[in-house]
Amino acid sequence: MKKLLAMGLAATLAVAGAAVLGGCTEDDGSITVGLIALHDSNSTYDKNFIDAMEEACENKGVSLILRTGVDEDNDCYDAAADLVDQGCDVIFADSFGHETFMIQAAREFPEVEFCHATGTMAHTENVANFHNAFSSIYEGRYLAGVAAGMKLVEMYNGDQLEENNFDENGNIKIGYVGAYTYAEVISGYTSFYLGAKSIIEEELEEVGLVMDVQFTGSWYDLVAEGEAANALINRGAALISQHADSMGAPSACEAAGVPNVSYNGSTAAACPNTFIVSSRINWVPYFEYMIDCVVAGEDIATDWLGTLEDESVVLTELGAAAAEGTQEKIDEVRAQLMSGELHVFDCSTFTVTKTENKNANATVDENGVLTSYMADVDTDANYAADTEAVVNGVFMESEERSAPYFDVQIDGITLLNAAF
């Protein structure tokens, strides 16, 4: 493994969007880490990675070279190659579309380790120095849904819901701003909905829950995310959550006085009246593991999954808008998830409608219960289904690879601008 040249603390490189943080020299036997980020710290998604990498590198006493604003195209390969030239021993990229370019770089530079978040290909590409990592964030989103459900119960019991917050069948309506119709987003909004639904069913009689999802077609678009949230609010959503990376949706909720569950960090400062909670992946455990492996000359796991147990899946502190008793309920449900008593995608907790164009890979019984589902785990050009995902009545998300593959469209969730 290469040794790095001495680097000045927080020295700025003569490359746009790059900076060196920390300082270790060849004599101390340490390493240099490179981070490729799709956006910068203005994106809640990228800020979560950047903050975690800076913390991990500081904890481990290693240097960091940060590259921000790297598109999901050949710019990623160029950034990776440049980081190799800068002396990086391990390079991490944070966005799904970076993956093929990271694999290209890994093949070209076998002496450097390449790690990637949210990717799907490491377990099938057989590139020894390329690795994927993710977490069971669906469990965090389920817990955030529990917090949402507690708020909805408070609003219902306090007569705070308006007539347009109910559908024609008397179900409470909520909304979700999603980036793309990827499995990662589908897994996330479904787990959030199921968490909220579990509380509604537990606490309210003869009242159900439905959710509309509005997609933006972008991971980060302040205007589009705000417009999507406003469209959902205008349709009667009593509460909004999101899987998109700007402050567009939370800000729209604050302006309209609609409770909001954000993602990747607290929005309490900007949205003091409407913020409930946020779930996020805590990347520090993985980054420290990755660094330890490289320093020790040990293999990094091909496909690593963080969990609630290792604190890779976390929630922020509750906001002022959270209902009384929410923390206690979250703690109770978290314990059930960690013990295996509760499974997020327990097929007995939802139903599935199968039509010609919807849930083609599903098998359902006469009651609409999912009994079998062939998931696309080993990604190929045709996205062919290849792996049975339902085991003993549970869709086993992230069992066969770390990145999510739950893409079932369940009843109660309506996609407003996407076709299945």
* Mean model confidence by pLDDT: 92
CATH topology of the largest domain, what is it called? Answer: Rossmann fold
| CATH architecture classification of the largest domain | 3-Layer(aba) Sandwich
Q: Return the structural class.
A: alpha/beta
The tally of structural domains comes to 2
Question: Can you tell me the CATH class of the largest domain?
Answer: Alpha Beta
Strand percentage: 15-25%
Q: Treating each run of at least 4 consecutive H or I residues as one helix, how many helices?
A: 10
Strand order of the largest sheet: 1-3-2-4-5-6-12
What would you say this structure looks like, in words?
The protein has 420 residues and is α/β, with parallel strands linked by helices. The chain has two domains: 18-136 and 283-306, Response regulator (Rossmann fold); 137-280 and 315-342 and 399-415, Response regulator (Rossmann fold, 3-Layer(aba) Sandwich), CATH 3.40.50.2300. It contains ten helices and 19 strands. It has helices at 44-60, 74-85, 99-108, 122-125, 137-157, 183-203, 222-234, 248-256, 284-296, 326-339; strands spanning 18-21, 32-36, 63-67, 90-93, 113-117, 130-135, 172-178, 209-215, 240-243, 260-263, 275-281, 303-306, 313-315, 362-364, 370-375, 387-388, 390-391, 394-395, 413-415. It has a seven-stranded mixed sheet, sandwiched between helices. Helix 5 packs parallel to helix 6 and helix 7 (222-234) packs parallel to helix 8. The relative contact order is 0.13. Residues 1-28 have low confidence and may be disordered.
